[in-house]
Amino acid sequence: MDFWDICKTTNFFEKILVKVPLFSILYLLFYKKAVETEWEFAGLLTEDKVLFIGGGAIPYSAIILSNKVKHITVIDNDKKSVNLAKKIINYFRINNITINYENGQYVNPKDYDVIFLPLQAQPKNKILANIKSHCHENTKILMRIPKKAFTKFYTPIKDLAIKNYKEKAVNQLTYNKIIMFYPGDIKNE
After folding, report:
1. Which of 68, 165, 167, 174 is the most buried (most CB within 10 A)?
2. What is the pTM of this model?
3. How far, in Å, are 6, 170, 179 from residue 82 at the CA level?
4. Closest CA to 173 of 73, 62, 31
5. Which homologous superfamily does the CATH classification assign to the domain defined by 3-185?
6. Sign of CA dihedral 68, 128, 150, 178
7. Is 67 helix (H, G, I), strand (E, B) or coil?
């Protein structure tokens, strides 16, 4: 199984779960503690505008954080996932999350205070180059780093175009740390 296979599997799994709201809620609960740890680590403020590059059919991180920040935008480059994500957001009656069909390599991130990059967002270094060239210098960027067993599926930290970062341990199935850095910490490609 390679990166694209695991992304397709995750995507397929979420597309099934989203059709049964109870399963979606259980999925959210599975990630709740890790996402709240990320929120605390980032020092998110109520007025922050947050961008998630890649949300899937169940944008669980955005849903979990929706009661903590003013506005969240989630983008994904899979139309079916975007449509399903919009349905689950409506089902939960969340009005401060916007879901858009867009590619992280080309999104304009200049209006955001915090950007989250999940494991599946690829190609990471091209997305990072886009962020570096369009964000203000104080934009916080958070990225999940895969556990060693999952580095064959996701970009390992050693292959990322990042010079400096802070890290925090997180206990989750596929990742064990979150890193935070700023646009100036991204290497020029």
Report:
1. 165
2. 0.87
3. 19, 27, 26
4. 31
5. Vaccinia Virus protein VP39 (3.40.50.150)
6. negative
7. coil
Tell me the pLDDT band of 22, cut-offs 50, 70 and 90.
Answer: low
What whole-number distance in Å separates Cα of residue 26 and Cα of residue 22?
A: 6
- The domain segmentation of the chain, as residue ranges, is 3-185
**Helix 79-91 × helix 21-42 angle, to 10°:** 90
DSSP structural state of residue 186: B
How long is the chain?
189
For 125, residues 6+ apart whose C-beta sits below 8 A from its C-beta are: 155, 159, 160, 161, 189
What is the residue-averaged pLDDT of the chain?
Answer: 87
Between CA 97 and CA 60 the distance in angstroms is: 11
Q: Mention every residue, 6+ apart, whose C-beta is less than 8 A from residue 123.
A: 105
Structure tokens at 65: 């954080």
